[in-house]
Amino acid sequence: MAREGVSRLFPAEGVKAMLMGSYQHNIDAKGRIIMPAKFREELGETFYATKGTNECIAVFSAPHWEELGAKICALPSAQARDLKRFFFSSAAELIPDKQGRVQLTPLLRDFAHLDKDVMIIGVGSIVEIWDLARWNQYNDEISESQVLEVMNLYDI
User: Fold this and answer.
1) Using CA atoms, how far apart are residues 13 and 10, in angstroms rounded to an integer?
2) CB within 8 A of 117, min separation 6: which ones?
3) Residue 3 · residue 97 · CB < 8 Å
4) How far apart are CA 142 and CA 66, in angstroms?
5) What's the whole-number average pLDDT of the chain?
6) How far is C-alpha 41 from the geometric centre of its chain's CA atoms?
7) Using the 8-state DSSP alphabet, how is residue 35 labeled?
8) What is the pLDDT of residue 18?
9) pTM (2 d.p.)
10) 3-state secondary structure 52-117
11) Per-residue pLDDT for 13 more than 80?
C-alpha cells in the first residue's frame, strides 16, 4: 500500500535535486520493501543503507555514499572510530529488483524496529526508512515553534 507524495524538486541549474515526500509501504515476509520509483530514479541502480539517527535507516546514492565514506575515513582514527563503526558495520548495498523491492538486512530492520508498516521519506540528499508508528510519534513531537526557531536561527 503506497501513499503518493511529492518526491523530487527540480532545482536551479548546478544545484543537486532534493529527495522529498513521504510514502507508506509494508515489509514483506522476506524483509523487502518497495523503494518508491521517484526515489529510485534519484538514488540510481545501486544505493546504500546504514543506521541513521533517531533509530531509522539512512539510504544514500552511490556518489553520496562514496563522498561520505571518504570524509569519514579521512578523519583521525581516534576521533572517528565510533563514527566509522556506527555507519560502516551496518551498511548494506541495495539493488532493487524488477518490482522496485530492496532487501533490508535483519540488522538494519532490528535497529529501526521495522516489522510491518514503514514510512519512506525524502530528507534532502538522503532517504530515511522509519517504522510507521515511530515516525508518527516523532512527527507528533515536533512543534511549529521548534521549526520556526531553527528557521529564524539560520535566517530562512
Assistant:
1) 9
2) 24, 25, 26, 131, 132, 133
3) no
4) 32
5) 88
6) 15
7) P
8) 86
9) 0.85
10) CHHHCEEEEEHHHHHHHHHHHHHCCHHHHHHHHHHHHCCCEEECCCCCCEEECCHHHHHHCCCCCE
11) no
pLDDT, mean of residues 25-40: 96
Task: Look at residue 144 in the predicted model and tell me its pLDDT.
Answer: 87
Place of cell 530492520: 109
Question: Cα(10)–Cα(32) distance, rounded to whole angstroms?
Answer: 29
| Residues whose CB falls within 8 Å of the CB of residue 110, separated by 6 or more in sequence, listed in order | none
- Helix, strand, coil shares, percent, the chain, to 5: 40, 30, 35
CA distance 14 to 29: 42
Q: Which residue has the cell 548546478?
A: 14
